Amino acid sequence: MANLLEQLSEMTVVVADTGDLDAISTFKPRDATTNPSLILAAAQIPSYQNLIDKTLRTSRDRVGPSGSIADVVSEAIDDICVTFGSEILKIIPGRVSTEVDARLSFDTDKTIQKAKKIINLYEELGIHRGRILIKIASTWEGIKAAEVLEREGIHCNLTLLFGFAQAVACADARVTLISPFVGRILDWYKLKTGRESYKGYEDPGVISVTKIFNYFKKFDYKTEVMGASFRNIDEIIELAGCDLLTISPKLLKQLSATEGYLEKKLNSSNPINNLEKISIDKEKFVSMMSKDLMAHEKLAEGIDKFSQAIEELEQKLKDRILVLENDNSFALSA
Questions:
Q1: Which domain holds residue 288?
Q2: Average pLDDT for residues 284-295, to the nearest whole number?
Q3: What is the CATH number of the domain that holds 87?
Q4: How many domains does the chain contain in total?
Q5: Which of 28, 114, 135, 305 is catalytic?
Q6: DSSP, res 200
Q7: Disulfide engineering: 137 pairs with which of 6, 105, 128, 281, CB 3.0-4.6 Å?
Q8: What is the pLDDT of residue 331?
């Protein structure tokens, strides 16, 4: 009998949730997704140091010799993400998600500008924009930015999605893909209830994604649903049949080592029908989010964590640049 990962791959697009190129090569997913925390972790792997240094030199060349260290670091953040994304695309046949700076999550215009810059960097490397998903936090401002970008042929992955209001607003904006966070929803409920565990079928994150998936399929939305942020394989098993699932190397390994029959739990051709269509404008979005304490808290927390990861990455890049200053080909201004 095929292992669970092999069976899952036949009914769901499996996406690697990592910036580790070796792990992606091992599991050979169709797509891959990264975030600031994953890029930060990957950037600390010694075997990738030459890749980081090469990217820093490219950033210096783009900024010019008169630019400050701060200027180079600012440029390098985007360059590093695109560098890892481009290396990932050499391994996988599909798409890679590259995230917009989470500190821009409440600024529609700056999110659009940053997304276009990232796409331009990929295109400078000869990579077609059709292979890139721009990852944006699912704030109202982020969703509106994605709506504009999608009309311009820039496909988006709306992340940090915890509530039904976020999902519906994304579908109405015709974004390409959403990433509802299963495990972080579970974390919140365990903390609030004191329960140590939930069975897969009663997991609050699983229930949330199941509802979103069936709503999208019932009303024929084209936005894809990609479950994310898993804590255990039981969550993954319960979402077999979802459009996509982005899974960490640890859980991919566990799935590949587990034998047994995998049942398709979500079926796009036969969605649950007891859902009513709703319409969401900004006022309704804000109201629904304010009433959904879990979604409200986890969105704010997620933006904070991603922002902190970017700041940590910036500091590590600055430290590395200071080391490279001794190289005559990498002279920097103070």
A1: 4-330
A2: 97
A3: 3.20.20.70
A4: 1
A5: 135
A6: G
A7: 105
A8: 56
